Sequence to fold (331 residues):
Amino acid sequence: MILLASNENPLGMPESARRAAAAALEGAGNYPDSNGTALKHALASRLDVPMDWLTLGSGSSEILELAAQVSVKPGEGVVYSQYGFIVYAQAAAHAHARSTVVPARDFGHDLDAMRAAIGEDTRLVFVANPNNPTGTFIEAGPLLEFLQAVPAHVTVLLDEAYTEYLAPAQRYDSIAWVRRFPNLIVARTFSKAYGLAGLRIGYGVAQPALAARLNAQRPRFNVSTPAQAAAVAALADAAFLARSYQLNTIGRAQLANGLHELRLASIPSSGNFVMVQVGEGRTVHARLLAAGIEVSLLDNYGLPHWLRITVGLAEQNEAVLDALRDNAPAR
Fold:
């Protein structure tokens, strides 16, 4: 199978991280370092923040869940965008919160409408940048204005799972915003650009008072010893990250251009995936499976006529384009 459904890095796990994880298995008879000291030290050095600003999670999805658990009481409000990452709805439900789903604008976040949707009982807002599954991106200026407008008692979770794939012109310093806004959590992951999806490791950055609440709620041994060791190694592997970025930039353009040539509408993406309109999504998905290619259905997002395709290796991208050729509109 060509696996293009879960936004994994087609390069797989970096060799540096593989060696570190294998070495860490020697100590796997003992519980992991519950504080993640070595990884927090590496992250603190990279991000220029104190270690007590950091929370480690089983993927960044656990950081999203923790944010809901510590910010929202049952019946209080959570705000997020239509077509936002599905874990936002799940995290709100697990916290017994009341969700307000704000209609998207051009498949992305309508920040003005999201600000207007914040009510007296709202306690948490989820913002994804870039957004999954649509790939849409929010420029730094409007995003900063939004943060400035959110009341101080409302926590904002800025989900940056795909931030390493942003073009240089798109990049902004969200960690500087954490220093400025005590109600902001930035969540990131090692599952995407760093290639460690199977080890389940992510992290959150927040000021100490908020980080302490996240860590108090966090399960004590939520990140395994091999995962911590692999993440330290991957964080230091600049060559692998640069290769991942370059491969994704070229491959994403390959997919976008190929879909355009097939006259299939797609959304400009800033992640490592492309969302494409194919007609009857389930029918096309089944045909791709029969051809040995797995992509992602988007029925759960209310997008039954769209599929999400992870950027793969060049030959994988070409294979999915070839398989979609029969679905292209007649010229």
